[in-house]
Design brief:
Layout: E1 2-5, E2 11-14, H1 17-149, H2 153-169
Antiparallel strand pairs: 1-2
GO molecular function: proton-transporting ATP synthase activity, rotational mechanism
InterPro entries: ATP_synth_b/b'su_bac/chlpt
Protein name: ATP synthase subunit b, chloroplastic
């Protein structure tokens, strides 16, 4: 049963079941739509805000991740440059050290060569001196033998001619 307004200023009872169900149904749907619709709208608004907040946070995290990625790439490039500088510096130092070692080796070789030449010169002089002393000794021995064996007239003439020729060659200036 539904109460409805009558045309002459009062309310009455409608006894038509079909009309009454449709009216009841319309009233129930209206009440449900009014109360549930407002709650559903509020729930949908809250859900929309939550989704938007999640999207905004995800976007912010994506921006931060992109910034971190960019920073990491920059640091990687800097690390690569630093590694290349260190490698080049290492190569330069190794080359310099090799050059230093080669130079020192060449200096040592030059000193050894000089020492070798000095040693050879020393032993040549020593050998020459020994040969000279041997020859002089032999000459002196022969001269003594001659002097002790006696001089013959031919030998006197040879010695005298030698000294005469020496005096004639002598020219004081």
């Amino acid at each position: 049963m539904v109460l409805f307004p009558l045309g002459h200023g009062g309310f009455g009872i409608n006894t038509n079941i079909l009309e009454t169900n449709i009216i009841n149904l319309a009233v129930v749907v209206g009440v449900v739509v009014t109360f549930v619709g407002n709650n559903l709208t509020a729930i949908l608004e809250d859900r929309k805000k939550t989704i938007l907040n999640n999207l905004e946070e995800a976007t912010q995290r994506a921006v931060e991740a992109e910034q971190k990625l960019t920073l990491a790439r920059t640091q990687l490039e800097q690390a690569k440059k630093k590694a290349e500088e260190i490698r080049q510096e290492g190569v330069a130092r190794a080359t310099q050290e090799i050059n230093n070692v080669v130079t020192q080796h060449e200096i040592r070789l030059a000193k050894l060569q000089e020492f070798k030449q000095e040693t050879l010169g020393f032993y040549q002089q020593k050998a020459f001196k020994e040969a000279y002393l041997y020859v002089i000794s032999r000459i002196m021995t022969r001269v003594r033998e001659r002097l002790n064996s006696g001089l013959d007239s031919t030998y006197h003439v040879v010695v005298n001619n030698f000294y005469v020729s020496r005096f004639t060659e002598y020219n004081p200036k």
